[in-house]
Amino acid sequence: MWYYQQGNNRIGPVDEAMIRNLLVSQTLNVNSLVWKEGMPAWLPVNQTALVNGLVLPPPPLPGSSSAAPKDRVIYVILAIFLGSLGIHNFFAGYKRNAIIQLIITLATCFIASFVTWIWAIIEACTVTKDADGVDFK
Questions:
Q1: Closest CA to 119 of 134, 135, 137, 104
Q2: Assessment of whether the complete model's pTM goes beyond 0.85
Q3: Number of H helices, E strands in the chain
Q4: Residue 78 CA, distance from chain mean position
Q5: Which of 11, 12, 60, 136 is 20 to 30 A from 28 via CA?
Q6: Is residue 114 assigned to a domain?
Q7: Domain that holds residue 15
Q8: CATH number at residue 32
Q9: Rounded CA separation 34/115 (Å)
Q10: Do 77 and 41 fall into the same domain?
């Protein structure tokens, strides 16, 4: 019987078939820690016999993101109402632009917030991907 770590929880005992199902469903991955009686320490799955004969999906391509796509409607609403503070860019992961917009607005005591708000509206109309290159949904 096997035990596995998921987050900060150690779960088990489960049989080998269950561990393999968790790997195939990507609940666990080859770097997840597992242990069974007789092992000196917890090891990643890829250092155990569990991966023998197991067909796993290929790893993601470099630069691709496994994160769920962000909602474009939320991005646009944030740009309209909080755009002068760069909140929409923080949401989409464009931290550099967000920080610049925030600094301009705060450094001018909101006097230049109209300029950063126009900038935000232009971004709301033209930006279609988050900072990881994933299309908004």
A1: 104
A2: no
A3: 5, 4
A4: 20
A5: 136
A6: yes
A7: 2-51
A8: 3.30.1490
A9: 55
A10: no
N-to-C CA span, the chain: 42
| Collapsed DSSP state (helix, strand, coil) of residue 102 | helix
**Residue 59 covered by a domain:** no
Q: Which amino acid is at 104?
A: I
62-108 pLDDT per residue, tens: 655 556 789 999 999 999 999 999 999 999 999 999 999 999 999 99
Question: Are 83 and 117 contacting, i.e. CB atoms less than 8 angstroms apart?
Answer: yes
Tokens of 123: 């971004």
10: in domain: yes
Residue 105 lies in a domain: yes
Q: Where are the alpha helices (DSSP H) in the chain?
A: 16-24, 72-82, 87-92, 95-107, 113-126
Cα–Cα distances (Å) from 107 to 91, 102, 104, 119, in that order, read 22, 8, 5, 17
What does the alpha-carbon distance between residue 4 and residue 24 come to, in Å, rounded to a whole number? 15
Rounded CA-CA distance 93/65 in Å is 12
**Which tokens in the block code for residue 45?**
């799955």
Contact criterion met (CB below 8 Å) for 50 and 29 = no
Name the domain count of the chain.
Answer: 2
Instruction: Give the position of tokens 């944030």.
Output: 78
